[in-house]
Amino acid sequence: MNTGKTLFAQLMDFLPWSTFMRTVARYGGDRAVRTLSCAEQFRVMAFAQLTYRQSLRDIEACLSAQPAKLYHMGFREPVRRSTLADANEARAPAYAGVAHRLIAQARRLYAGESLGVDLTNTVYALDSTTIDLCLSMFPWAHFRSTKAAVKLHTLLDLRGNIASFIHVSDGKLHDVHALDMLLPEPGAIYVMDRGYVDFARLHVLHQAGAFFVTRAKSNLDAHRIYSAPTDRTMGVICDQTIAQDGYLTARA
Cβ(241)–Cβ(225) under 8 Å? Predict the structure, then answer.
């Protein structure tokens, strides 16, 4: 008979719980909480993620299947879906500090990972995805007249595929506004699609000492100033310096 910790408890030991409790205290997450503290709520949601639970009822049923083992997983009492729903809806976001701490630890572990190209710069990929929702249950998630949705904006560190920045907005927020929320990292390379082409915002990346790689829109109004020699065997078709012809784009 195994008298040691459960596998789930061993995984939870990797979390910086001292940082977690300081963050909870800073945001007052456990204020006036009688059951299901922030630590227990985090364990419940981590368990749901690791075991691919699909609903609150599914989480409750799965945890209730082995009630004698809940204490060894870090739960003081059985988890009820109504209590969990109230905690997810009303409790303060006390987990941001923990997420930043874990991201910093993970990035240090993958700092020496090769990208497949000879680059010492940090390379980020910026993109978004639209998550469809039921309009009757999520009327606040404005998207279309017959559909609700949220948009997940993610900045991915390609060394280790670590999400360095995540923002959830309603489905109508244009991708380009995510650039306003970023703190550009000098020397880093940002790879993005043509949805992020905004010359004023891209110039902010340039002023911060960062680089960006994107695709031109079909209606780009510009002309070539100079063509540098290239080696097409390396995959580079052309290397050109261009200038904007539009009045506003040239100023931006």
Answer: yes
